[in-house]
Specification:
The chain is an alpha+beta fold. The chain folds into 2 domains: about 140 residues, 2-Layer Sandwich (Beta-Lactamase), CATH 3.30.450.20; about 160 residues, Reverse transcriptase/Diguanylate cyclase domain (Alpha-Beta Plaits), CATH 3.30.70. It is built from 10 helices and 11 strands. The strands form 3 sheets. It has a 5-stranded antiparallel sheet, with helices on both faces. It has a 4-stranded antiparallel sheet with strand order 7-8-6-11, with helices on both faces.
């Protein structure tokens, strides 16, 4: 990597401070910038350009760029030199505002994604015209990862990793808005595991949790990426289907779901076969709000279970 440019700080970049003591000289400000652990840029504001005149060593370490790639070029040169900045033009516009605080997602010298916040100070001449920007960057990748983790936990079921009620409602509202705009429909499929209490009783809660995780994974694998599967709680799951896969009729989709769910699971070294019951409702035929559609699907699910128990009872009586 080339040695970072150690350009002398322009005199106009040195703030004027009226104190009883002499103001720090340009060399001190330059040394502070060079020693800063945070990436720092100084740009000159021209009529139609935003040229970089200085970058400190921390910036070069982060970006992997050389002085030749950076100094004298416009902000867009960061993209061209491999320091990938999404929406650079919009951010450049924002940088011209005094109140801007910009967040960037960039690729560092090692190809890793980093999250940065940028603060900057506008420097003006005697007439009050903006001449330079001092841009200070702060790496907040760790904090962003922590926020993303908290957000994920707030929107996803802790056991299965599927969407929870909160995220499912959000997806429902998006699907409803889309359906209203395009005069289309979608389906809610409410699904639960048959006789799940017996599984918990026989294998304990740990075994029950393993069944729930496997069940959720199989549901996810059975639908297209644009559809949603969520765990509402207990052994109750719900699918949001904008259309059936490849025009597949609903009864065939349900049969395929049951076949996938019915494949044996290995639990504590033993093969366990589970089954499920499915109740569906259709937007907007059965309702337009989530609560109503879930009620209809739940009623359908109850009838499916009742009919299955009735058939089982009849078969037992006949034998």
């Amino acid at each position: 990597m080339a040695t970072p440019l150690r350009a002398k700080t322009p005199p106009e970049l040195v703030p004027s401070v009226a104190t009883a003591h002499p103001a720090p000289g340009p060399c001190l400000f330059h040394d502070l910038a060079e020693a800063s652990p945070e990436p720092l840029l100084i740009t000159r504001i021209d009529v139609d350009a935003h040229r970089i005149i200085y970058a400190n060593p921390a910036f070069y370490r982060l970006s992997g760029c050389t002085a030749a790639q950076i100094v004298g070029r416009e902000w867009q040169s960061l993209v061209e030199s491999g320091f990938h900045v999404g929406g650079a033009d919009a951010q450049l516009t924002a940088m011209r505002r005094d109140d801007a605080r910009i967040e960037l997602r960039v690729q560092d010298a090692f190809g890793d994604e980093r999250h940065l916040t940028m603060s900057r100070w506008v420097l003006r001449d005697d007439r009050g015209d903006a001449t330079h920007l001092v841009v200070l960057m702060r790496d907040v990748t760790f904090e962003q990862s922590r926020r993303d983790g908290l957000e994920h936990r707030a929107c996803h079921d802790a056991l299965t990793g599927l969407a929870n009620r909160y995220l499912f409602r959000d997806h429902f509202l998006q699907a409803r808005a889309h359906a209203r705009r395009h005069r289309s429909s979608f389906i809610l499929a409410l699904i639960d595991i048959d006789d799940f209490k017996s599984i918990n009783d026989g294998f304990g809660h740990h075994g029950g949790d393993q069944v729930l995780k496997c069940f959720g994974a199989r549901l996810s694998a059975s639908i297209r990426a644009e559809n949603t599967v969520a765990r509402l709680g207990g052994d109750e799951f719900v699918l949001l289907l904008d259309t059936t896969a490849d025009g597949e009729p609903m009864h065939r989709l349900i049969a395929r779901l049951r076949a996938m769910i019915g494949r044996p699971m290995i639990l504590d070294g033993r093969a366990l076969t589970v089954s499920c019951s499915v109740g569906i409702s259709r937007y907007p035929v059965d309702g337009e709000d989530l609560e109503r559609l879930l009620q209809v699907a739940d009623a359908t699910l109850y009838r499916v279970k009742a009919n299955r128990h009735a058939h089982a009872g009849a078969a037992n009586a006949a034998s």
